Protein: tRNA/rRNA methyltransferase SpoU type domain-containing protein
Organism: Stephania yunnanensis
Amino acid sequence: MFTTSVPTGLQLSLSHKTLQNPQLETLPTPPTKSIRSPSNPFIKHCVKLRHSSSYRHSHGHALVVGTTPIREITRFQECMDERRIVIDCLLLLDGIEVPKGLCDSCSQIVHVSSTVIKKISGLQSIDSIEAIALIKIPTSFCNMEDYKGEPNFGRWFPSPHRILVLDGIQDPGNLGTLLRSALAFGWDGAFLLPSCCDPFNEKALRASRGACFQLPIVSGEWEHLETLVDEFQMKMLAAHPPENCTQMAESSSLSQELADTLACRHACLVLGSEGHGLSDKSKESCELVSIPMVGEYESLNVSVAGGIFLFMLQPSNHRTI
């Protein structure tokens, strides 16, 4: 890890990718503990972190809005890393004290005006927003496009019993909700195929409530997923509502009986995009499974359907019923 200068004197740790873009090292550094102007260079830096996926990942940081997700993330990271400092910068609304439990987790604390909070968060109403944090993108996230060397899925997914695979999920709200559900039902990680949105997108973060900082996530191509499947001999299932009688005969129905047959097997569940459904590759590679429904509904929203699948197929040692 390396450090470089950023606005307002805050030292943010950057990944090795940052050094490939020298423009990121030329930001001014006026020292301050309070920022009132939305035109401050550091505030512009924060807004770019919110807007741009490439900027986020080149700096190795994400912007987390709201005290509750910030506290959840720090609590989890402290348990995993056994260390206290997990927030590089905590931005607090003027007059607000450091939330309980976060004081020892912050490297820097800066008080900002309500105008600045609104600018950084991008929200019209900030009535419930008192804190925004700059937190390192966790090492549990890996983008195979940037990874050099042989894939090490045993390190990224220490217990790959249940892996959620997202095939072109572009709506950040759906992606965040699915990651949150996967974490809630004890799944071991997520694999993002091409065309998925960034899990550290502001809306995805809001929907996931910080789950992307807690759930191991790998972003890669089909060839990487096939390596994972082969390495751990995983059963591949894909959620797919049948479009006609032929497909209905070829697909299985989600049931407790199906879940029981998979109890002792490694398995991954593929969910397709909102507009186009599963890719042809997913349909060819997976056993298609549908949710039995009353009436003639074509399908459910992917986050709703995904939640049902994640609950029904959750690891047996995590079942709540």
About this structure: Confidence is low (pLDDT under 50) at residues 1-31.
